Please model this.
Amino acid sequence: MANDNQGGRDRRPSPEALLAQADRDDRGKLKIFLGAAPGVGKTYEMLMSARARRADGTDVVIGVVETHGRRETEALVAGLETVARTSVDYKGRALDEMDIDGILKRRPALALVDELAHTNAPGSRHPKRYLDVLELLAKGIDVYTTLNIQHVESLNDIVAQITRIRVRETVPDSIIDRADDIEIIDITPQDLIKRMQDGKVYLPKTARRAIENYFSPGNLTALRELALRRTAQRVDDQLLTHMQAHAIPGPWAAGERILVCLDHGRNGPTLVRYARRHADRLRAPWTVIHLETARSASLAEADKDRLAACMRLAEQLGAETVTLPASRVSRELLAYATANNVNHLIIGKSERSWWRERFEGSVTHDLIRHSGTISVHVMSDGGEEVAPRGVRTAAPATRIRMKDYLSSLAFVSMAVLIGILLDQTLNVQNLALVFLMGVLASAVKGGLGPGLFASFLGATAFNFFFLEPRYTLTIRDPESVVALLFFLGTALIASNLAAAVQRQAMAARQRARTTEDLYLFSRKLAGTGTLDDVLWATAYQMASMLKVRVVLLLPEDGTIAVKAGYPPDDTLVDADIAAARWAWEHDRPAGRAADTLPGAKRLYLPLRTGRGAIGVVGLDNDRQGPLLSSDQQRLFDALADQAALAIERIQLVADVDKARLAAETDRLRTALLTSISHDLKTPLAAIMGSAGTIKDFGGGLSEDAKSELLTTIIEESERLNRFIANLLDMTRIGSGAMMPNASPHFVGDIVGSALARAAKITVDHRVETLIPNDLPMVKVDPVLLEQSLFNLIDNAAKYAPAHTTIRIEASAAEGTVRLCVIDEGPGLPPGDVERVFDSFYRVRKIDHVKAGTGLGLSICRGFVEAMGGSIVAGNRPDTPGAVFEIRLPIATMAGGPTS
Model:
């Protein structure tokens, strides 16, 4: 077995796993009931589990549960204690939210919190409900909660691509990762659609729309697979943590994991692509690992480039990449595979000769011999080479630092003085060790060159000052010759070893700085939300880390254009424009030091993602010749990969928003055409019918009949005029052309004007006004406010039965004037309170309600908000009826409010 050769070291529990377990023991337990879509029964199953816990003696309370009017769910809630919700005032409306302080004061063993992704009302302690849950867990309270897969942050783009709907309320993946249990609530798409058709999820009309759009069988199948895969991923992580915390050797074949080991060999791309195909067949996660040994630092630049290209290829194909130090490759590789529950190990066939394998050992043979239950796949050389970059690299600097050689001279001189002192005072026999210390100090400080210089200088000084005959370079005793030769050999070996340690330390420090800079760059990109910010951050980071000037070009209108630069520069000569366009079109480097168009001032390199090139980067500096060394090219690749992904993320979000806007535009267009074809056709038909009757039968009609027909023509013409005016007003609001002409006005005057216009509409209703004479004046556009009031009065007259009262009230409160239109109609359905202000949205009508365009209330909101006010809708608390409340700012003069 692999573990038998690794001693007790690998049998110790993982410190990280033990810390994670200790953290879980100190907080409450979180269980998530995860579903693929609304309506699968998450809340029902959560309540059933809670009742079972209560039957076992657990103290259970409900923090918040949304029953959505389902009788079966309400029956389960009835037997459980509920902590009363707290009321949060928002724009004059009272919104109910979970009372987290009440739950903490009650301190139950288990709290039920429905809809984990819910956004709390402004003014709540936390903006999101999952933050409330984290606080409960931190206080040691167990939590049961529900979540739909479309609310998981990392899956947001995938869900938007599947459903064409971007979910705004999301939960970080860290919440899923810290859940102690995940129970997936799963039913087939056919069963869920049947539940919707039976009215068990939504009302029938809403259910039909949902099935046609979001809840199609294809969408539900894809969401179901996402839920199952995310749950399986979390379970797999829990299994791995359990094995690491209990030092279980493994691997356990509960799930498939693939590990690919890469070195600088030519078969790297073959290994990576084979591993990707194998992972696709097994539907398994896969990792690519490179183990750095003492020889890694001395690899040729071509080998380093080949290895870096293979690691980049692995990342582009979806692998997790890991680089670890190792003294013995086979041992460290098996240790990593065992610790991470890997059961498929892929390596390349060794390129060593048989005599090197006999003396140095074979990694392949060691892995097969000690792999245990791990399957080892040995791939032969596929003959595939990484495509050449097509860019000449700058030669590394070989500047000789005289300071280091002078330091070596000083160290040897100090060794001579110390040796003379020891020789005269203590009669030390082996003074060569003093010179050996000087050699080591020189190698550690200056590297290999100064170390070798100190070795030869020290041997010469040792011979001159301490070997008989002294103060000559002649050696009398043959034993002294042997001693001097061994001293020189030891000094050379020691200087090489010390220089190697020094190189590794410098490389480690440089790698740490580079890693930190890349990490900070990735965090900066993750926090940017606009394309300009991403481009600016990228240009600055590349310029500062590579010590070059940078321009970034992106496609625009069929060509490539400069979008950012550091230092700022947007001018390109013809040769540079041609090189940038060629690099973009062919996805290959062009320009300075490249194989194509080398006469350009800058070197142009494409920005790539898995979908292809998305832009071009231009680099230049004041030096002549090639721009980047091999190390700098590898660093550029890392920066370019991160930047390309960030740019692609911004573009994908923009594409989804465009698709959503296009879908919304289509919906509005459809609604507008429907409105024109049906709602506008009604008054036209009445006008044409009345006018035709007068024309054809005017002579035989009585005066009363003619008057009635003319009245119908006038009323329907006014109605048609209102419809067209609403459409024009909505167009003005949508185009941003609404510029209110605000000035101080008395609300009572505008109300009177609106009622005069609406006299014919309210002829069958009683109208009451309650407007104090001392009401402060408001700063409004009287035309817009009159139209808003007219639309509200028209809406009230349309929905309220005949001979009922429409009341208009006004009062001053908190620096605003509150203006309410109250009717005695059926009121607003609970789910329509916010949607009534949407364009073309109409509440379900009763028989006496006349048709409309669904634009009146939307225009009200647009007009009122354009004047700096707000409008909300609600229902009367005492009797049936709707209330529309407008709040307008009080007009102020130099001396205070006007009245």
